[in-house]
Amino acid sequence: MDDAPHPLADRFSRIRAIALDRDGTINVDVKYPHRLEDLQIIDGFAEFMAWAAETKLPVSVITNQSGIARGYYDVEAAHRFNAAINASIAPLGLRIEHFEMCPHLPDAGCTCRKPATGMLENLSARYGIAPNEWVVFGDQYSDIECASRFGALSVGLGAKFAAPGLAPISPDLVIGALGDFPAIYRQAIANSSRI
Ligand SMILES: [Mg+2]
Ligand SMILES: [Zn+2]
């Protein structure tokens, strides 16, 4: 049974770049996290980043930060928070290459706030990597809808996606946390290349 090809093996083998949601995906979402003391990295993030580096997949972040437009914090604070995430993995020689942030209010009508696809479009153009070669990880429906509209593979994280019948939109794959993904990917690729 374990030797059966993973249903997503073909999609996995097409992946050339990774886009991560930030709050609730990399770090615990403590509601508008922006102070350095708000940064609690979720277990498995460093392992995920090590796998991405080994697999030669660049990692970027796409994050809605309406707290900026709401006046809760400024863009410099958001940059400092992003830098602190990278500082946590820098000793391992790992790095998130780009942080795309939407600073706007939900009703601003911008083209970047997820589920809109503007941030993915920016990254796609920057890397010259097609929509269906991206995989997006996130803990909210808006992440999954954004991936789906764009044409990327979507991975839903956490409890919200565990009861598929109840979700308004279903990711292509559901896992507990980022750290679960490398083993699933490796097994799927290994099984598919054995055929
Ligand atoms: Mg999130
Ligand atoms: Zn925006």
Description:
Helices cover 33% and strands 14% of the residues. The chain contains 6 helices and 6 strands, in the order αβαβαβαβαββα. The protein has a single domain, classed as 3-Layer(aba) Sandwich (Rossmann fold), CATH 3.40.50. The protein is of the alpha/beta class and 195 residues long. The mean pLDDT is 94. Bound molecules: magnesium ion and zinc ion. Magnesium ion binds next to loops.
CATH homologous superfamily name?
A: HAD superfamily/HAD-like
Order of helices and strands: HEHEHEHEHEEH
Largest sheet: 6 strands, parallel
How far the N terminus sits from the C terminus, by CA atoms, comes to: 14 Å
Tally of distinct domains: 1
Annotation, overall tally of beta strands: 6
Instruction: Identify the bound ligands.
Output: magnesium ion, zinc ion
CATH A-level architecture: 3-Layer(aba) Sandwich
The CATH class designation is Alpha Beta
> If helices are DSSP runs of H or I spanning 4 or more residues, what is the number of helices?
6
